[in-house]
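Supplementary Text 2. Reproducibility record for the structural model of the 354-residue chain.

All settings were left at their defaults, and a single model was retained for analysis rather than an ensemble. We include the record here because the model underlies the residue-level annotations in Supplementary Table 4.
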Amino acid sequence: MKKVNWIIWMIILLIVPGWYLKGYLNKKTETIASFVNSEAGKSNFNGTILVARGTKILYQKGFGYADKEKGIKNTIDTVFPIASETKSFTAISILQLEQEGKLSVTESLSDFIPGFSEGDKITLHHLLTHSSGIKEMLNVVDNSKKATTQAVIDALKKQKLDFQPGSKYHYSNSNYFILGYIIEKVTGMPYHEYVREHILKPAGMTHTSFLTEPTETIAAGYKNMGKPSEYIDNSLNFALGDIVSTVGDMYKYNLAIQENKLLLKKQTDKMQTGYIPLSQDTSTKYAYGWYVTEKPNLLQKKMVEHPGSLPGYTAQFLRFPEDNLSIIIMENNESNLNLNQFSKQIAQVSYGSF
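Retained model, structure tokens:
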């Protein structure tokens, strides 16, 4: 009889915690869904949102239209340009090559591309952290015209630096365009092929490709649900904004980063370390392809994030490495909704601090 009672108690101890945890997670999921659905409805959000913690997806849903004219709705499988979130893929590629001993972030730009103004003073670290002083390429070349990678590099070579390398942060797409060019020189592979083989495949990102090499239908871009007036030729996106993906694939990307499938832990930590403060009055620093905000902050958690923006599209990827919480937002509409603020509000709800 005692043995039977002992077995019963063991069963209870095994079942009840799981039942309780399941109920807790379901309640948490319902809370997130209630908040996101409400806020998305108020702002007429048009895109897709995914919230996950570890290997559990807490929330995912599509809103509005992938193609308004054709009546095609956004779903969790809709493909969107991730724009500048591409920069983290470029940063990982550089760190992979450093890991293999093929380059070092302390090497100078002149070691790879001769002819740049003060190129011997600019390191790959400066390029990765937007502290090189190289002018913004979109102010140098015609954004509406197709350009070869070499033509853009040649145009940038002629420009004088805006400031001394390493002296401050100033976001410039030129930095990551140049890094993409260096990846091609070092590997002998096209940038897109390298990323596909060394990041997309290991991470299991089967619905991710490039604007210049689309393999799936991409959501139409809008501005306030009308056609955007601006245009940037896809050839200029290269290693700074050419990737298209789904929220599900970006979730896989987050897991691959956190599980050190793409980089050794030492390199992953190096990538997620803030180096250059955005300004004197902020605790946010630019790392390698990410913005990093250390504690203390609103959520008292280390935040790693990056936005993305192209004509007709906006995106936000917010990650909390300590808890492996990720909030991924893709929108095929330029609207008044602040995705940076929205993602942090979702995070507050997810952590139960709202």
